[in-house]
């Protein structure tokens, strides 16, 4: 496996102080930004103009997780706005191959997310178009939810499909990832770990990042 990567979710950060909150996770590999449109998921967060400014000031590259309808139309604009990785949900994509190609053409890593109730198998053929697969370990929409261990077989299935394909595709987990659950995810084959409340809701974000990293490094 490639080296493990930590991607703190700013969903649990102080939205009135995002520049400072991004600086606080400068030691992370990515800054995970959850875009929710109030339609694909019941929650509403932030959109394109905010992501564009975050990309300009963040020490860590932006890992945009788009929980939105019509990603075919909107996702490439997040790449153009400066997100280095753009994740769309397969459940919302009309033409995922064209979408992934548009993301790469715009200079971003192309990533596909799958909700807990969505099977990976039907989309395994997309791997050559993708730089990352995000296996959700909660229902998307809110931070602070309980980790779903029952998604670990899916992580193993994606890892096996990536091995068979032979290319380099990262596997991200998002939702309920903490010091208690991160090793389980790594054992199943994940190598990019999103953590919101586990990073921001305890004293020092940088110490929390180091703790998570130490649990899965090497
Ligand atoms: C949930 C978001 C996650 C969320 C994770 O829909 O995609 O990125 O911020 O938060 P925690 O780590 O608290 O489960
Ligand atoms: Zn997310």
TrEMBL record:
It is an enzyme of class 5 (isomerase). InterPro entries: Aldolase_TIM (IPR013785), Ribul_P_3_epim (IPR026019), Ribul_P_3_epim-like (IPR000056), RibuloseP-bd_barrel (IPR011060). It comes from the Bacteria. Pfam families: Ribul_P_3_epim. It catalyses: D-ribulose 5-phosphate = D-xylulose 5-phosphate. Substrate binds at residues 9, 65, 141-144, 174-176, 196-197. It comes from Nostocoides veronense. Pathway: Carbohydrate degradation. Keywords: Carbohydrate metabolism, Isomerase, Metal-binding. Its cofactor is Co(2+); Mn(2+); Zn(2+); Fe(2+). A divalent metal cation binds at residues 32, 34, 65, 174. Its EC number is 5.1.3.1. Binds 1 divalent metal cation per subunit. The lineage of its organism: Bacteria, Bacillati, Actinomycetota, Actinomycetes, Micrococcales. The active site is at 34 (proton acceptor), 174 (proton donor). This is Ribulose-phosphate 3-epimerase. PANTHER family: RIBULOSE-5-PHOSPHATE-3-EPIMERASE (PTHR11749). Belongs to the ribulose-phosphate 3-epimerase family. Catalyzes the reversible epimerization of D-ribulose 5-phosphate to D-xylulose 5-phosphate. NCBIfam families: PRK05581.1-4, rpe. Transmembrane segments: none annotated.
